[in-house]
Amino acid sequence: MSRRDDRRRRVEDAFADFQRAVSAALGAVAREHRALAIEHAKDMFEFTVRGMGVDKALQDVALKNATPFLTVDEKRLRNPRQAPLSMAEFTERLAQIKHDWQQSYHEWTTSGPDQLTALVNTVAAGPASWPHESWLGTPGTHDGSEGVPELWRIGTGVVTSAPEAAPFPVAVPLLDQAHLHISSTPDGRQHADTLVENLLLRVLSHFQPGLVHVHVWDVGQLTGSLPGLYPLTRAGLLTVHDPARLHELLDELSEHIRQVHTKVLVDGHLTVRAVSGEGRRTEPWRIAVLFGNRKALKEEHQQQLQRVARNGLACGVQLFIVDIPITINSPVETVSSRGDGTASCTMTGKHVTVTLDPALPRTLVPRACAAIADKREERRSRMSKFGDLLPEHMWTETSAAGVVAPVGFDDGEPVCVQLGDTSPHALIGGPSGSGKTNFLYAMLGSLCARYSPSELELYLLDFKEGVSFAQFAPGRKDPSWLPHARLVGVNVNTDREFGVALLRFLADEMRRRADAAKQHEVTKLEHLRAEDPSGRWPRIVAVIDEFQYLFGERDQVTAAATQLLEDVARRGRSQGIHLVLSSQDVSGIEGFWGKSAIFEQFTVRIALPKARRVLAEPANDAAVELPRWHAVINHESGVKPGNEICRIPDSTSKDTMDFLQRTLWKRDPGRAPGLFDGSKVPFLDALPDFLDLRPGDASPTVLLGQVIDVAGSAARVRFARTPGRNIAVIGSVVQDAAAVLGGAAASLGRQHEPHEAAFTLACLVDEAMPAALHLAKRLSADGHDASVIGIDGIRELLDRTAARLQSLNTGTADTPPSPHYLVLYGVDAAQTLLEQKDPTTRTSGVDSLRTVLKHGPENRTHVLGWWRGVQRLKACLPPGVYDDIGAWVAFDVQGKELLSLGPEQVMAWSPRPRRGLFFDRFEHSRPQVIIPFDTGEAS
To answer: What CA–CA distance (Å, rounded) separates 784 from 780?
Structure first.
């Protein structure tokens, strides 16, 4: 290449470098400012060449690409396929350009700086460029909805080759635009620190407190960097990291970037800025300030820092790197600070001297930061109303892919709990008084307001004398109920079997849904709903409060509950069944924590103040210092980067959840939920199973009590004409025995027409007489033949009945067998009397009783008897033969005493007030716990 061609190429290339530099200084401004930026780039090129001289400019290898100034003819200067210009032609062209430069230079010196100042003020309004007197100490109010300043002032620039030119502001792009790399001379570090502090205060003072979080790492000192900003720490806006643990800071930033990509940058968005659009900034910026000592980082830290830099800007992560040599493959602005307070910048080039802004007043900086922290705390402590959790329109959401509900607020933004395929189950922890009930109300209210009962069903269970969910079922004062609730369990106390029953119900429902999914050749609820749009497949959320009591003992209940819980937790997600387990302290639940398959499924962790073992301790201790009315919401199995801290509104006071319930109930009450109240005895006459009984069945059903199950069904015994269809009640408490016998006789009477059946009530203990008389009165009122006898008539009753049964067996009876029920209160009280033998027949009353028990059921005669002990019952039966008592209910009897009458599972039985153990040897493989009915009988 000839010298002339080389000179020509350098002139051609000269302008582009200046154009890019000045355009960058002006930032990625709005489109209407582009033309002005290009014109000023031309001007700066011209007055620079004017100051250097044309000949020197031609020799400067830094000048490149003046293509924008070339005319159509002059394009031959850079087009090798066209004939080159002669030296005379080139000189003539250059002279013309020089003339134009001189004119443009004159225009620049008179108006350029003012235009630049106006432009910077336009794209960097407020604290981004204004003097500190107008903003320092006043917390910002911008939430990002009005745009983000594209430039941030760092100092004042002057053109060294144009001494008459006025100074102009110098600003750098930050936040979503570019990272900042600052290098300093040994005597310029103080000015570098000042630059960092000034920029941070400009950013912090521009935005609403909480939209910017600062992280500081200094390789040389544990504390002391940027001391004026330390008041921000109490509001969580400033975090100072250990100089020996840079990897932890970089890991935290990397994890944050990952979460933003997986949770925020969805639906095709590439940046958080694009997600926010014209609305409020949804994700706070995180500015990481790294102070070095002019030495390179370790190789692994270099690589990790480069990854953060490369991906951080799109996710709101900004790096300020001070005195750390590094090459970043990402937009970065470089400032070189000198000891005299001047600097040079990437954008301004070497012909512009930048005087950095002086340090802000030392006394005002901590005050300003304290004001920002106070404003942040004020926003965090502001009590959002329960109504803010509710949508504008009720029941508009679909639960096909899952359910999402806001439960609290962080700086006015809702924080949600999500239950779906990826986050199937939730674990809530918090000691007494931490606001657990309030949180549950907030979550349930938010869910029920968004999803209709056809989209969401609730099963609510509260252990340990809890009544948190009582209002969701109809009551005497408030007849309304929560339409989504299908089951409400309160005051469960020691009835751990009800928890097992709920889990068994969920497991059965899970299998039912899985079978339906197989028929439609799909695997998950979302697809099943698409294939079967006419079916009813709501999401199910089962909430068990104080669930640790379900695993409180090492027994069969715990074993069954653990097995069922593991099954539902592992497979329920795909069938739309979600568990929400709540506890004061989950640290000692061996049956739960010993099963990794259970533990891993509860990816949603909610920690209330002072909660233990809910988050991933000890690394995540966010709940330790959590203030009241707050919660940590974590969808990442409790690891620290997944924390979202929010304030929970008051959801339990009047006109909050109760008002929402009445509103939804009036809209569509649906079917009232089933209610299990462990503190109440079920009323026989209100039991659906009792009301469904009708005359006409040849094998009437005896109702003995309520089984502890989800349906609230009754314990049944079929009185078929087969051996052993007799019932024994075992225990010493009259009230329990009278309740079982009264419910059994009343249910039998409901299945017979008037005068069809005979009831003989033998009261052999005085304490039972009121109950016997009350039952006789009830049966008589229904048209049945009911008589009451005392202990003096028992022998004659048994002998007469036995004789009739023998005649029926031999075929000598003159009438066919008719229903006859012997209700015996306290049989063992007449044991001595019954053991006496008749002198004539040489038989005793015990023999007659055994005959009635053995042959009565085949002839429609059944015994419903009460014995006050197991041994006393055995004394009335043939030695070692207990088949004539086909069903029994035991109360205050230890399990080991019942072993001869039932299966091995009876060994685990320990008596409880108003609870009985029921076993039917012809129907059951294991006994059931039942609650005797309230029949209205006097005890």
So the answer is: 5
Asked whether residue 596 is marked as a ligand-binding residue, the answer is: no
Q: Return the structure tokens found at 432.
A: 């007494």
Give residues with Cβ within 8 angstroms of 753, minimum separation 6: 695, 783
Contact 769, 761 (CB under 8 A): no
∠ CA 714-716-718, rounded to 5°: 155
**Residue whose entry in the numeric block shows the structure tokens 């920002």:** 372
CB under 8 Å to 262, separation ≥6 — which residues? none
d(CA 419, CA 415): 14
DSSP string, 46-69: HHHHHHH-HHHHHH-TT-EE-GGG
CA 834: distance to chain centroid? 66
Place of tokens 């994890």: 255
* 82, burial (CB in 10 Å: exposed 0-12, middle 13-18, buried 19+): exposed
Binding site annotation covers 518? no
- Does residue 24 come out as left (phi exceeding 0), alpha (psi in the -120 to 50 range) or beta? alpha
Task: Flag whether pLDDT at 107 surpasses 80.
Answer: no
Q: Is 355 exposed, middle or buried (0-12, 13-18, 19+ CB in 10 A)?
A: middle
* DSSP codes joined into one string, 687-702: -HHHHT--TT-SSPEE
Lowest mean per-residue pLDDT among 36-40, 84-88, 663-667: 36-40
Q: How far apart are CA 282 and CA 262, in angstroms?
A: 14
Order of strands, sheet of 212-218, starting from the edge strand that comes earlier in the sequence: 168-172, 152-159, 352-356, 342-345, 332-337, 179-184, 317-322, 285-291, 212-218, 238-241
Under a CB-based contact definition with an 8 Å cutoff, are residues 705 and 889 in contact?
Answer: yes
Cβ proximity of 737 and 891 under 8 Å: yes
Q: Among 197, 198, 204, which Cα is nearest to 142's?
A: 204
Looking at the DSSP bridge assignments, the partners of residue 489 are: 461, 676
Closest by CA position to 473, among listed 623, 675, 710: 675
Residue 435 marked ligand-binding? yes
**Residue 670 annotated as part of some ligand binding site:** no
- Which tens digits make up the pLDDT trace of 605-642? 999 998 888 888 777 888 888 888 899 999 988 888 78
The b-or-e profile of 208-229 (16+ CB within 10 A means b, else e) is bbbbbbbbbbbeeeeeebbebb
* Residue that the structure tokens 């933003």 belong to: 260
| Paired residues of 597 in beta bridges | none
Say what the pTM is: 0.68
- 373 touches 231 (CB < 8 A): yes
Cis check for the bond before 80: say yes or no (omega within 30 of 0). Answer: no
Q: Which two tokens stand for residue 610?
A: 């002072």
CA 633 to chain centre: 6
Task: Give the tens place of pLDDT for each residue, 520-561.
Answer: 999 999 999 999 998 899 999 999 998 888 887 888 888 888
User: Is 233 annotated for ligand binding?
Assistant: no
Question: Can you tell me the distance from the alpha carbon of 763 to that of 383, in angstroms, rounded to the nearest whole number?
Answer: 65
Instruction: For residues 592 and 566, give the distance between their C-alpha atoms in angstroms, rounded to a whole number.
Output: 9
Confidence (pLDDT) at 88: 60
Query: Does 434 count as an annotated binding residue?
Result: yes
Q: 868: which 2 tokens?
A: 């006050």
Closest CA to 766 of 792, 796, 743: 792
Q: Where are the alpha helices (DSSP H) in 415-538?
A: 436-450, 496-519, 525-531
Can you tell me the distance from the alpha carbon of 708 to that of 823, in angstroms, rounded to the nearest whole number?
A: 26
Residue count (the chain): 939
- Find out whether 436 is annotated in a ligand binding site: yes
3-state SS of 550-611? HHCCCCHHHHHHHHHHHHHHHHCHHHCEEEEEEECCCCCCHHHHCCHHHHHHCCEEEECCCC
> Are the CB atoms for 108 and 43 separated by under 8 Å?
yes
Q: Give dist(CA 896, CA 347) in Å, integer.
A: 89
Asked whether residue 155 is marked as a ligand-binding residue, the answer is: no
Q: Any residues with CB less than 8 A from the CB of 277 and at least 6 apart, and which?
A: none
- Residues forming a β-bridge with 320: 180, 289
- Structure-token pair, residue 422: 């990826």
Angle of helix 794-810 versus helix 845-855 axis, rounded to 10:
50
